[in-house]
Amino acid sequence: MVDDKQLARFLGWFSIGLGLAQIATPRQFAQMVGSSGDDESDTVTRLVGLREIGAGVGILATPQPAPWVWARVAGDAMDLALLGRNLAAEPERRDRAKMATAAVAGIAALDLYAGQRLIREADGHDGGNGAMRPARRQSGIEVKTAITVNRAAEELYQFWHNFENLPRFMDHLEAVRTNGDGRSHWRAKAPAGRTVEWDAEMIEDRPNEMIAWRSVEGADVPNAGSVRFVPAPGNRGTEVHVELRYNPPGGPIGAAVAKLFGEEPSQQVRDDLRAFKQVIETGEVVHSDASIYGRPHAAQPPAERVVYDGARPQLAGK
Description:
Helices cover 46% and strands 21% of the residues. The protein folds into 2 domains: 4-122; 141-283, 2-Layer Sandwich (Alpha-D-Glucose-1,6-Bisphosphate, Chain A, domain 4), CATH 3.30.530. The chain is built from 9 helices and 9 strands. The strands form 2 sheets. It has a 7-stranded antiparallel beta sheet with strand order 1-7-6-5-4-3-2, with helices on one face.
């Protein structure tokens, strides 16, 4: 029987090969699947090819390829929708579209099978004989990163302990409201302009050393996190170690789509920690032009200094 990872690698190389063919000969490829073969179909075919290459590279380059395999499943659904338009064309093109639709449906079934197998494997099942592999601590995405801040652990602990401070440097958080009983309500940005909300509870609190929290049952985004404050060597301040685990909206597909839109979780957390360091050490965050005006935008510094006023960046002097 084919190993799950071997099947994923096959799909990765298949995706890259298909994408290269679509980019190299877009008109011929479009005509082969029943499209008209005009400039518009050339552009669509090239874009689909870029998507295929991106998914293939993601599958081959990551130790956990499941999200990228599920991204292929989503891409298959898009391709079937595009092919559906060709089924209404004249008979010759319609016949080619029917054959292409059957081929894509077969690949979609293989992608779906591989995605399910990889998810089961990641959750601790072998997918075949009922034996169990060591399970992960929690399904979803796990991020660990750290930064050194030139301040005492007590000061950093006090700032972080008030969760309402977190949106000041965590770009994806819109607001946190504490309830005074160890619980808090969080509201965060999600892909495609959506927002998600959940309640969390503090599960560990060691003054000047560690804070840990987790979402309560029924959260839009099940998650858990912790922050540790460790004296840095050479009297250089404090090492801030952050660990986050969560299940993104939409599961593996949501995670893959978020990465395609430049919202990769580990990069988000690293950026947030750099902003935290700036807030603590200087009282302000130096934003690029892109971070003020949104993606996509040239990443060049604004002419005026940007300071934090509550949870929103403001130009100094405004």
